[in-house]
């Protein structure tokens, strides 16, 4: 099966929907850097061509934004880059005198 046929398959589309929902449509790479970035790309952590056995394994898939995907795959070119919305995440600490 070609990559194009795989990415149009019902199995992939269902798997992709599950991963997007699981990851709340947020870039997992950006989250690792405390940034909230909307995302709509499902990325194979272990590349599809190297590990076709993990093609539909949700533990090998994560949601990432176009910018992070371009960093993962510079060989595919960036095309037009859209400005991504970044939200800084700050952790609040409760007042210790209250507890």
UniProtKB/TrEMBL annotation:
Keywords (A to Z) from UniProt: Endonuclease, Hydrolase, Nuclease
CDD domains per the UniProt record, alphabetical: HNHc
Domain HNH nuclease per the UniProt entry, residue ranges: 14-70
InterPro entries: HNH, HNH_nuc
Highest taxon of the lineage: Bacteria
GO CC annotation terms, alphabetical: cytosol
Transmembrane helix keyword on record: no
Entry GO MF terms: endonuclease activity; hydrolase activity; nucleic acid binding; zinc ion binding
Keyword Thylakoid found: no
Coiled coil: none
Family: Belongs to the HNH nuclease family.
Protein name, entry field: Putative HNH nuclease YajD
Organism in which the protein naturally occurs: Pullulanibacillus pueri
């Amino acid at each position: 099966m070609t990559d194009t046929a795989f990415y149009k398959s019902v199995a992939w589309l269902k798997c992709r929907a599950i991963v997007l929902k699981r990851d709340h449509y947020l870039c997992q790479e950006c989250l690792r850097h405390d940034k909230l970035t909307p995302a709509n790309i499902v990325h194979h952590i272990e590349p599809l061509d190297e590990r076709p056995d993990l093609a539909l394994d949700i533990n090998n898939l994560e949601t990432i934004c176009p910018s992070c995907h371009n960093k993962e795959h510079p060989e595919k070119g960036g095309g037009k880059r859209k400005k991504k919305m970044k939200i800084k995440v700050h952790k609040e600490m409760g007042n210790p005198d209250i507890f």
